[in-house]
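Loading example: each entry is read as two labelled lines plus one structure line.
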Amino acid sequence: DADVTQTPRNRITKTGKRIMLECSQTKGHDRMYWYRQDPGLGLRLIYYSFDVKDINKGEISDGYSVSRQAQAKFSLSLESAIPNQTALYFCATQGTPQETQYFGPGTRLLVL
Amino acid sequence: GESVGLHLPTLSVQEGDNSIINCAYSNSASDYFIWYKQESGKGPQFIIDIRSNMDKRQGQRVTVLLNKTVKHLSLQIAATQPGDSAVYFCAENIVPSGSARQLTFGSGTQLTVLP
């Protein structure tokens, strides 16, 4: 079974709709991250959390919000989706700052 | 702009040859670097990492070289196989001023292995 899972894997929504992307992990890591990836670009950090009570904005947090419901769960919400939020979204976990990050399989989002 | 960048967006190699993927970084305070492989439709997968107190690290068929003088990182893949075809990202672990560590990624190099 995958250590980091994301749901849904694919989503099509309309402009103005609120949607939530979910991430779960079984690695027991405190640190969790949300990234987006656009064609031809690298990953860009949206939000990150170092424990259940800690939430931090990343490079491109505008238009997004997150919730850390438990150590194992970190959700990303688009309050009012817009077409330029069409992208591939990845969740990642990390044990300590000196370790690598482990990525989920991604959620492909299309905003019409 | 990106503080981590790749010299070539695409690289084609013959099966069995060695591959070298390069990466430049700009933050001299970065002390931890990672190479990821991303296959089509999948999330990034960790390949190998290196800390700034090392110049070279070897894994299974892969070697990472770090040149701190010119802020350059490379990934070498020996005896490249068709399954190595993917996009390869380098990432540096930096400490933004007054904040905790963050990974910054380059845009990636597409490696294509030719039969």
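Chain B touches chain A at residues 2, 4, 9, 32, 34, 36, 42-46, 49, 51, 89, 91, 93, 99-103, 105-108 (CB under 8 Å).
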